[in-house]
């Protein structure tokens, strides 16, 4: 992960898998589903969809790919196509009322409701650094949370095109850091509990 | 005092560095912990895609049983599963050997049928004999589906079984 080599980019691996699927290798599609579903799940959930609605949206994205496989001219663009389709369908599903109520992460919903207790997410995260990153991530603007969560499931050469597929302006991330990561870093550096990793 | 009125802009314009990658790695595993992809979602997606790509009918599991044999050890049992769809039924019996592989013997209620076995990452095909019997030998453990196609002039869609675990 995170190298500049083209072969180590999710978009390139997705393009290769898609090409082999179109050449009659069903295993190519299985590889594609394994590699890209975590990113699509992140996109759908970050649009605020409840669990079941997010599952439906992600599955339908893949079914649309089967349906449209022959009309995608450039295999190189398949990752962007998947992200764009997921985001658009998640948005329209969400606008029909399948959004998640706040703070109902399935695993943690029942854990604690006392306002003075740490938030449920913080009790799930074992690592102190992770808890700090999460605390500050949650204070970022929604579009930054969407961008950074998706980027975290891609490889460095993919950042700019993932941002573009999410509808973010050019320069949101890659090759420069962009404002979302800058905000997160400033927030962490200003937090006395944060120790710069060596 | 910082002479730069916009430290965020300055930081934003710099290239990505090791710290950014550290943070993105952290965000990835934080989200994997807090909101993981549901465990069976990927398998359900693959099955739905196969059904769509084949324009197939999905067979139902009519019955399934684990037949413990006399010795009753882990390595000496057979599972049978019966599927049915559209007037066609198929019973498969899985014989687990002492290795990581299994043998499959099946019977289809019709004789002019081609059976495809879909394993993770590969497929193989055989035709049933005059009694409707077919076999696959040395199948890796894992999830498999069967796709059944009636004779080419039948004009019926292929039938796919739900995945079963070998």
Task: Using brief descriptors, characterize the structure shown.
heterodimer; A: 198 residues; mainly alpha; 9 helices; disordered N terminus; B: 166 residues; alpha+beta; Immunoglobulin-like; five-stranded antiparallel β-sheet; 11 strands; 42% strand
Mean pLDDT of chain B: 86
- Measured as a percent range, the helix fraction of chain A is 55-70%
Proportion of residues in extended strands of chain A: under 5%
The total count of helices of chain B amounts to 3
Number of domains in the coordinates of chain B? 1
Number of domains of chain A: 1
* Structural class by SSE content of chain A: mainly alpha
Poorly predicted runs of chain A are 1-5, 103-115
What percent strand of chain B? 35-45%
Rg from alpha-carbon coordinates of chain B? 25 Å
Number of strands of chain A: 0
CATH topology name of chain B: Immunoglobulin-like
Shape of chain A: globular
Explained architecture:
The complex is a heterodimer of chains A (about 200) and B (about 170). By secondary structure, chain A is mainly alpha-helical. Chain A has one domain. Chain A contains nine helices and no strands. In chain A, α2 (about 25-45) runs antiparallel to α7 (about 140-150). The two termini of chain A are about 20 Å apart. The model of chain A is unreliable at about 1-5 and about 105-115 (pLDDT under 50). Chain B has a single domain (about 40-165), classed as Immunoglobulin-like (Sandwich), CATH 2.60.40. Helices cover about 25% and strands about 40% of the residues of chain B. Chain B has three helices and eleven strands; from the N terminus they run αααβββββββββββ. Chain B has helices at about 5-15, 20-35, 40-55; strands spanning about 55-60, 60-70, 75-85, 90-95, 100-110, 115-120, 120-125, 135-140, 145-150, 160, 165. In chain B, strands 1, 6, 7, 9, 10 and 11 form a six-stranded mixed sheet that branches. In chain B, strands 2-3-4-5-8 form a five-stranded antiparallel sheet, with no helix packed on it. Chains A and B meet through α2, α3, α6, α7 and α9 of A and α1, α2 and α3 of B.
């Amino acid at each position: 992960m995170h190298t500049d080599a083209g072969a180590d980019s999710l978009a390139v691996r997705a393009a290769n898998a898609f090409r082999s699927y179109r050449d009659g290798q069903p295993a190519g599609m299985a590889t594609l589903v394994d590699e890209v579903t975590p990113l699509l799940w992140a996109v759908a959930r970050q649009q605020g969809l409840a669990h079941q609605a997010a599952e439906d949206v992600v599955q339908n994205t893949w079914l649309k790919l089967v349906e449209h496989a022959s009309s995608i001219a450039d295999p190189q663009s398949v990752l962007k196509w998947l992200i764009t389709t997921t985001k658009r369908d998640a948005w329209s599903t969400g606008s029909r009322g399948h959004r998640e109520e706040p703070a109902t992460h399935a695993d943690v919903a029942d854990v604690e409701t006392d306002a003075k207790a740490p938030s449920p997410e913080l009790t799930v995260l074992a690592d102190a650094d992770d808890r700090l990153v999460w605390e500050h991530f949650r204070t970022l603007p929604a579009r930054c949370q969407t961008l950074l969560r998706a980027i975290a499931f891609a490889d460095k050469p993919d950042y700019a095109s993932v941002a573009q597929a999410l509808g973010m302006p050019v320069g949101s991330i890659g090759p420069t850091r962009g404002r979302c990561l800058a905000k997160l870093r400033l927030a962490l550096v200003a937090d006395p509990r944060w120790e710069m990793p060596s | 005092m910082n002479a730069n009125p916009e430290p965020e802009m300055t930081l934003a314009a710099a290239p990505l560095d090791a710290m950014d990658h550290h943070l993105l790695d952290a965000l990835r595993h934080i989200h994997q912990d807090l909101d993981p992809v549901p465990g069976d979602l990927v398998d359900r997606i693959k099955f739905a895609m196969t059904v769509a790509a084949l324009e197939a009918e999905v067979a139902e599991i009519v019955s399934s049983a684990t037949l413990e044999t006399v010795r009753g050890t882990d390595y000496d049992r057979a599972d049978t599963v019966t599927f049915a769809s559209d007037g066609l039924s198929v019973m498969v019996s899985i014989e687990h050997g002492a290795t990581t592989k299994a043998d499959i013997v099946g019977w289809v209620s019709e004789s002019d049928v081609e059976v495809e076995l879909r394993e993770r990452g590969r497929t193989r095909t055989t035709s049933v004999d005059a009694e409707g019997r077919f076999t696959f030998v040395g199948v890796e453990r894992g999830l498999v589906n069967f796709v059944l196609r009636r004779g080419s002039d039948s004009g019926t869609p292929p039938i796919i079984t739900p995945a079963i675990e070998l």
